[in-house]
Amino acid sequence: MRILVVGASGTIGSQICKTLEHHDIIRAGRNGLDVTVDNMSLDSIKKMYEKIGKVDAVINAAGGANFASVSELTPELNERGIESKLKGQINLVLLGLDYVNDGGSFTLTTGVMMDDPIRMGASAAMANGGVKSFVKAASIEMPRGIRINSVSPTIVQESFARLEKYFVGFSPVPASRVALAYKKSVEGAQTGQNYEVY
Ligand SMILES: NC(=O)c1ccc[n+]([C@@H]2O[C@H](COP(=O)([O-])OP(=O)(O)OC[C@H]3O[C@@H](n4cnc5c(N)ncnc54)[C@H](OP(=O)(O)O)[C@@H]3O)[C@@H](O)[C@H]2O)c1
Q1: Which residue range(s) make up the domain with 102?
Q2: Tally of domains in the chain
Q3: Which ligand 1 atom is at minimum distance from the Cα of 153?
Q4: Burial letters for 19-54: b for 16+ Cβ neighbours within 10 Å, e otherwise?
Q5: How far, in Å, is the centroid of ligand 1 from the Cα of 10?
Q6: Is the pTM of this model over 0.90?
Q7: Would you state the pLDDT for residue 177?
Q8: What is the mean pLDDT of the chain?
Q9: Is the dihedral of CA 110, 115, 119, 125 positive or negative?
Q10: How confident is the model at residue 195 (pLDDT cuts 50, 70, 90)?
């Protein structure tokens, strides 16, 4: 399969590329090895798709949100989660539909914070919940047999040292285990799922 991975150089994205290395992978990001894209820019997403042409699968493992307590979370701080983690992912689908072959797939990324809240996590949880709902609702009317799923990782071992203070009492999982959920989404047959890797 020809697979676009947005966020390919990241902690999770690099493990996804390793797990799917038997496929033809196109590695994308703002400094992408094969193609550049800023998922917060519609123009940039359009140009990326025009450049790469048709693919069998699109995986997104990019997108962030600001960590802030609700009393400190301004509309401006919340904007990053909306623009990047929520709209950035959904726009990859809306602008990418015509570039995915019949029977292909999209796989987006949510996260444990929407199910198991942590301090300062409301903005990311908002975006995760929006993506999860979009995936579930969109799956029933995706054209040409195209499937759509999301993967919800808990904190991964490789990020735990940096983020442990936020994820008190969580049990981290290796990014390689998270990557298997993307493999299931791309190579399997399910649609409308949010794979929890907790
Ligand atoms: N790490 C965890 O423990 C964990 C747990 C749950 C959920 N998640 C979620 O999983 C996703 C990936 O996390 P990660 O820890 O692997 O992130 P990461 O290590 O920071 O990597 C982010 C990747 O996305 C790319 N990127 C960043 N901003 C971008 C943009 N605007 N447009 C296109 N590409 C962009 C980066 O490459 P460039 O710099 O070249 O753009 C990089 O390849 C995020 O949505 C995160 O919220 C992570």
Answers
A1: 2-197
A2: 1
A3: 6
A4: bbeebebbbbbeebeebebbbbeeeebeebbeebee
A5: 5
A6: yes
A7: 98
A8: 97
A9: positive
A10: very high
Contact 68, 79 (CB under 8 A): no
What is the distance in A from the centroid of ligand 1 to the CA of 84? 10
The two three-digit tokens of residue 5, written as one number = 């991975």
What's 8's domain CATH number? Answer: 3.40.50.720
CA dihedral 131, 182, 172, 166 (to 10 degrees): -20
Measuring from atom 47 of ligand 1, which residue has the nearest CA? 64
Query: pLDDT value at position 32?
Result: 82
Q: Is residue 16 classed as helix, strand or coil in its secondary structure?
A: helix
pLDDT digits (tens, 9 = 90+) for 24-58: 999 999 998 899 999 999 999 999 999 999 999 99
Neighbours of 188 (CB within 10 A): 14
